[in-house]
Automatic annotation (TrEMBL):
InterPro entries: Fe_traffick_prot_YggX (IPR007457), Fe_traffick_prot_YggX_sf (IPR036766)
Chain coiled-coil ranges: none
One Gene Ontology term, aspect cellular component: cytosol
Keyword terms: Iron
GO MF assignments: iron ion binding
Entry's family note: Belongs to the Fe(2+)-trafficking protein family.
Pfam family, one: Iron_traffic
Name of protein: Probable Fe(2+)-trafficking protein
Amino acid sequence: MPNTVFCKKFQKEMEGLERAPLPGAKGKEVLENVSKQAWMEWQALQTMIINEKHLNLMQPDSRKYLLEQMDKFFNNEPTDRLQGYVDPDDIQEL
């Protein structure tokens, strides 16, 4: 039976992650408060942010920035916009 959590992103009970996706206290917080669906959506956005901003995750400032964006995402706060990205749902067919 899947683990369930009250997801802070979607504000409802949802299927949780099987294990902490990050080490330490931050990983425990995500495991206890973020659904599997929210984590998957964050991973997609995270990939776009890393690529768009040319982040080097070996640099502490880049990792700090990415964690700040993650916290904003899970708390339903605006994250940095990616230049040139158009959500496929926003495209109107001609």
